[in-house]
UniProtKB/TrEMBL annotation:
Ranges where the ABC transporter domain occurs: 5-246
SMART domains: AAA
UniProt entry keywords in alphabetical sequence: ATP-binding, Nucleotide-binding, Transport
Keyword Repeat appears in the UniProt entry: no
Protein's name in the database: Urea ABC transporter ATP-binding protein UrtD
InterPro entries tied to this protein: AAA+_ATPase, ABC_AA/LPS_Transport, ABC_transporter-like_ATP-bd, ABC_transptr_urea_ATP-bd_UrtD, P-loop_NTPase
GO MF term list: ATP binding; ATP hydrolysis activity
GO cellular component: plasma membrane
Length: 246
């Protein structure tokens, strides 16, 4: 089976410091993957390269079928090609209802204020309800997003990204600041999302990664140090050295 995303031998330096060093990475179309690694391992820079925010000095980044060369596309073209990114802090429209947040997200180019003049179709309503069910916020559709808990805001933002139906979803530290119950719900949500798309989760919390129950890629000094199940990578002596030597 061919990969959805193929990153081959990328490197990038900042002022002579190699933040990403000959890194290769592949993920299939319906796969959940966790990326772990100590601070400064290059996790954020890797996601910045995939989303077009940072350009590598060397290497290739190919995506989709037919394959697109992401290094030739702008950040917005990459987003439109089907790569969604969730940053660590939730960024929802706090003064709008959960329902309106999801509705706005259904179309990439629908500006927040344009929703006022926008006529909603029965199909949109159906989709908003389905998304709300998927993220566990069916009972909160009429509430202002600003009134939601931290975890609920994170789910709403994931729902807003799912509304755009990305082929690849990149999620940065979703578990941070969440209660145990919220973490469990988030794991279920991400696992379900990965049944119909690729999902990459960058996470420091090992318990959360264990619950994701997926292949893990360990980054260190800008390269892949190990890859496999969490048990496999945590038994790797290089990985143990890197984590104990922090
Ligand atoms: N724009 C930049 N200019 C200079 N150095 C940078 C820049 N971006 C990242 N770096 C450096 O590159 C290295 C990798 O950083 P990156 O943020 O990708 O690591 P990370 O694995 O995401 O770390 P963390 O877990 O702390 O978020 C770090 O040493 C960082 O200081």
């Amino acid at each position: 089976m061919s990969s959805l995303l193929e990153v081959t031998s990328i490197s990038v330096s900042f002022d002579g410091f190699k933040a990403i060093n000959n890194l290769s990475f592949e993920i299939g179309g319906q796969e959940l993957r966790a990326i772990i690694g100590p601070n400064g391992a290059g996790k954020t820079t890797f996601m910045d390269i995939v989303t077009g925010k940072t350009r590598p000095d060397e290497g290739r980044v190919r995506f989709g079928e037919p394959q697109l060369d992401l290094l030739r596309l702008s950040e917005s073209q990459i987003a439109r090609a089907g790569i969604g990114r969730k940053f660590q802090r939730p960024t929802v429209f706090e003064a709008q209802s959960v329902r309106d947040n999801l509705l706005m997200a259904l179309s990439n180019d629908r500006l927040p204020f344009a929703v006022l003049g926008y006529r909603e179709t029965p199909r949109d309503d159906e989709r908003v309800r389905a998304l709300a069910t998927e993220i566990g916020l069916s009972g909160e559709l009429g509430r202002k997003a600003g009134e939601l808990s931290h975890g609920q805001k994170q789910w709403l933002e994931i729902g807003m990204l799912l509304a755009q139906d990305p082929k690849l979803l990149l999620v940065d530290e979703p578990a941070a600041g969440m209660t145990l119950g919220e973490r469990e719900h988030t794991t279920d949500l991400l696992r379900r999302a990965a049944e119909t798309r690729a999902v990459v989760v960058v996470e420091h919390d090992m318990e959360f990664v264990r619950r994701l129950d997926c292949k893990v890629t360990v980054l260190h000094e800008g390269s892949v140090l190990a890859e496999g199940t969490l048990d496999h990578v945590t038994a790797n002596s290089d990985v143990i050295d890197v984590y104990l030597g922090r």
